[in-house]
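Researcher: Sequence of Replication protein follows. Predict its structure.
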Amino acid sequence: MTKNKTKTKVYFWLKFDKKFFDNLFIKRLRNMSGGYAMTVIYIRLMLESLETDCVLYYEGYLDNLIQELALKLDVSEDDVNMTMAYFTKCGLIQIDTDGNAKFPQAEALLEQETNWARYQRENRKKKVGQIPTKLDNVQPMSNQCPTEIEIEKEKDTELKIDIETEVEAESRKPSSAADGQSDLNIFEYYQERIGPLDGYQMEKLKDYIDLDKMETMLVKRAIDRAADNSKRSFGYINSILKSWAQNGIKTIAQQDEEQRSFEGRKNNDNQTAKFGPACSKY
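Model: Prediction complete. Tokens:
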């Protein structure tokens, strides 16, 4: 009997209140030219960082992080540059030596929950005002009935066991070089090169292979790229894989072709900047 696989989703959001807009750095923008746009861009940048541990990584596709963020948000480089400069000066954006941007305020405002927890919360809302059933009346009187927290723990345990079982089954499956896969256990390889891997991270890597149909060796390349650049964090690897998935890159061959195209465009841009568009070898 085939068991249906359910993807565990994790929802992220920023929890704002009035104090955010009462912040002196935010209030100051109201009197600055372009201040409203800078506030919106700052919030969008924080939202973009949520899935990568509140850090926006410079991926190296363009000359700098500013250009990559401008393209991602579909806004001008000048607006992103002004926003980054202002909030960096205020200490709300921190740029590291590799050109990555960390958002401490996003960490403070971050909220998250799984789809199971969201279902339970929505279910509780629906029950508000309803007439209690016999079970609702009996349960508080009995210590033998499992509480909602215990039920959620059991569900989490079942999910964790299910994930581990599927991972073991996947690692035992025969594979061939013809379809771009290998007998490499990607989860063990991650822990060898990067560090400990938790259940959520394991599921994300598995989704890239099972749902996005990426080659195992392509996921390995993302891990190698992070380790070789001393960026040993799941957030950095996830940002690489997410970018590849969005661009339809599923195989090593496709990524090689993308890299060649990128280097070709970069060389053409350098030649244009050096000689000017009107210059010719003739």
